[in-house]
Amino acid sequence: MICSRTVFRCFKALERLGDRITGAAGPYFVAFAVILISLGVVCFFDVIMPSLRWPLLSGPFCVLVATNLLMHYFYVVTVRPGFPDEPPREPNTESILWAKKRAPGTGARWASELVVTRAAVTKCRKCGQAKPERTHHCRICNRCVLKYDHHCPCVGLHNERHFVLFMAYLVLACVSLAATGVPHVLRALGATDDMSWPYHVPQIAFVLIYILAVVMALAVGAMCAFHLWGASHGETTVEGHDFDVYRRVAKRRGETFVNSYDLGKRRNLELFFNVGEGGYPLYTLLLPLRINPYTDGRAWARRAGYEHAGAGAGADGEGVHGGVRRGEELTDEDEDEEGEEARV
Ligand SMILES: [Zn+2]
Ligand SMILES: [Zn+2]
Question: How far is the CA of 84 from the centre of ligand 1 (A)?
Fold first, then answer.
């Protein structure tokens, strides 16, 4: 447990560094990523694909992975993360890009066994916006973002699902390319008897893409695991850091910190992807479709005993989570101060 927390904290520091770099590079970074991913896809379909066995099976599988990869990246970049000053979004039932729900209902998910209660609202001291729980002010966008995770581009309530799925499909694609491309990369390097290269992609480009795929499989694999770990514990990247502080505060008082959004690993993941009971069918995870989150960002599912933790909390100073009093909860300003200290 201590080990995974430490790893989580290391990634937090890495992600902050990444935020600063990608925030500055912005559009160039996105364009560069699109070019590299497209090159990878072209390399795979030109060089590796024709040599795969069971083409009737591997063909559709590869097309599906490539489509998911490109579409989820497109969604991460184009779907705005969600802001507290805009009205709740409804799914677009006309568009073929949107998944269909089994039972048509409201945008938010109010399943009978799920306790979803209104969020506590504070005011952002940077932009003056009303700020429901889990909203944080993004320093790069200079705006409050619902269920803010990090900026890379800005990831929040409406695109976090696509962000994680994009990473998962990128890892799957890189692992597939690395595993099936071995004979081709040896051939490109002149390490086999067959020196011919009957493909459109130049040998050097294939070798470079192959190396990149191996590196990305490891790096993005770790990042994806880190995000899935957070999602399965019901916490965002920002909250992962805050909760560490709360744990220490509660421990000093002889209490135990309880994350009120944590409904158990399986339920947390179901809610994160909005699948399972009351949500969308599980197979939607395999398709490049858009799905609304289970909530509009102004209400949250809470574990038993914390139903009144949000806006309806009593006057006894009880906070949103167990072991933390109201007023002890960290704000974005605290985060900044800590960030400044770390930089000095
Ligand atoms: Zn703000
Ligand atoms: Zn941002």
Answer: 9
Closest ligand (CA of 130): 1
CA-nearest of 109, 104, 133, 160 to 295 is 109
The number of beta carbons lying within 10 Å of the beta carbon of residue 49 is: 15
Report d(CA 2, CA 18) in Å as an integer: 24
- pTM of the entire structure? 0.85
For residue 156, give the ligand nearest its CA. 2
Residue 68 CB contacts under 8 Å (≥ 6 apart), including other chains: 165, 169, 286, 287, 288
Tell me the CA–centroid distance for residue 135 and ligand 1, in Å.
Answer: 8
CA of 33 to the centre of ligand 2 (A): 18
8 Å CB contact between 232 and 259: no
258: left (phi over 0), alpha (psi -120 to 50) or beta: beta
Classify the C-alpha dihedral 74-235-314-130 as positive or negative.
negative
Q: What is the mean pLDDT of residues 248-259?
A: 88
Rg of the chain, C-alpha, whole Å: 22
The enclosing H or E element of 67 equals helix 55-78
Q: How far apart are CA 307 and CA 127, in angstroms?
A: 29
What distance in Å separates the CA atoms of residue 80 and residue 145, rounded to the nearest whole number? 9
Which of 153, 132, 152 lies closest to 144 in space, CA to CA?
Answer: 132
Cα of 128 to ligand 1 centre, how many Å? 6
Say how many Å lie between the CA of residue 140 and the centre of ligand 2: 5
pLDDT tens digits for range 93-133: 778 888 876 555 444 555 556 778 888 888 898 898 899 99
Q: Mapping DSSP to helix (H, G, I), strand (E, B) and coil, where does residue 76 land?
A: helix
